[in-house]
Amino acid sequence: xxPLQSPPPTAALDDxxxxxxxxxxxxxxxxxxxxxxxxKDVMLWxxxxxxxxxxxLPWDRGANKPNQAILFDIPGERIYLFNLEIWPQDIYMLTGxxxxxxxxxxxxxxxxxxxxxxxxxxxxxxxxxxxxVEAWVEGDRxxxxxxxxxxxxxxxxxxxxxxxxxWLAISAFFALSFLWYFxxxxxxxxxxxxxxxxxxxxxxxxxxxxMTYIMAGFAREQVCFYMCPYGRFQGVMxxxxxxxxxYESWRGEGRAKPGKNRDFSNRxxxxxxxxxxxxxxxxxxxxxxxxxxxxxxxxxxDACNDVMEKFGLPKNLISYDSQHNINxxxxxxxxxxxxxLIRPRTLIYSGILLATLAVTSLALDTRELTEVNMLKDRAPxxxxxxxxxxxxxxxxxxxxKSTEPRxxxxxxxxxxxxxxxxxxxxxxxxxxxxxxxxSLRLLVRGKMLPDxxxxxxxxxxxxxxxxxxxxxxxxVFNGPSH
Length: 482
Description:
The protein is built from 16 helices and 14 strands. By secondary structure, the protein is of the alpha+beta class. Strands 6, 7, 8, 10 and 12 form a five-stranded antiparallel beta sheet that branches. A four-stranded antiparallel beta sheet has the order 11-9-13-14, with no helix packed on it. A three-stranded antiparallel beta sheet has the order 1-2-3, with helices on one face. β7 and β8 form a beta hairpin. α3 packs antiparallel against α16 and α7 packs across α9. The N terminus is likely disordered.
């Protein structure tokens, strides 16, 4: 077809029926009660308490150290996790922790599906809190839908203003609590309340406040649909024994309204009330099968069980169960509930988790508590003294990562048996408090042996108070070539 020709009518029709972009349809989840709703409430308040109270937990680390249980000390270049101090040199430990968390998420998915998404994800938690505020101010589903369609009025503006003011207050509190993890909590709170913040602290506060307000107040399920990658690859982590939220179509179809006689002998148990859709925070119909948009919150189970109970029908038409059990029930072969925990997928995940934990723990247990870095001056490479000796200059950096003050002895070894001095000190002894860094200038003098052609190996040895070597750093001693 020529570029100037119009597309055929059928192509234009297909574009209208399947647009590349569709406007978001606002979802108004209905309030429901039941086991999973109570579980979500417990998780909601427990996780909020954990997040907001943890920075206030005291942890005594001794003098001149923060007494906050968890602190990401950016100026001090370290992370405090209760009794553990992580330095930039220990970044591999954070890598191990992240691998453990990721594989732990896969392991959880293999066992209980998307329970993380439905009950513990921060997007779910904050969105759930915002929806509770919305329902408290504007009413339940039908009341909110009427309010959306109502003409502008003083009552409508008052409710909307109250809701958004509360959302902004919650967002500001969340942003403040995030800052608690990066500074002394009481001091940070005082600085924010007195507007005594600026720079990156202010940018971080305003960004987190805006993102919480937008993501939990407006984007909501769109974050799960389009921003979070977890839902995209969740299917590969499931097998037939993974617990998922599923509609048992073999029992529910064909669905129909209950009718006056409420006879379910020759029809499915689903009464097509659509309550499972109305309570869903992502607005999907679980009866259409497993979908990427399902976050596994199981609120549709609570809604359906209420309906089944009213009609005197067995519960769990929508169930949180494995596909193995559901298929067995469909063929009347299930005599008892089967939960198969030990299977290839869970064994592989368990092995990776144990290996990651073992390697990270071993690295933590065997890590050096003293870090030494020796950098040779490049300009000039060497200086020839009036005595005929050659002098090389070095910058020596010593970091004490232990929890106690330590004294070190600096020694230099080379084939020419050089002498050395630490500028500003009369001795080779260096005392460092816990968590402190010493940056020293080291001058090494000696003859240049002709056998080494201008480059001789030199070793710095750091010894403890008992003269036992604890760190060795290899470098070179430069001089003229013969």
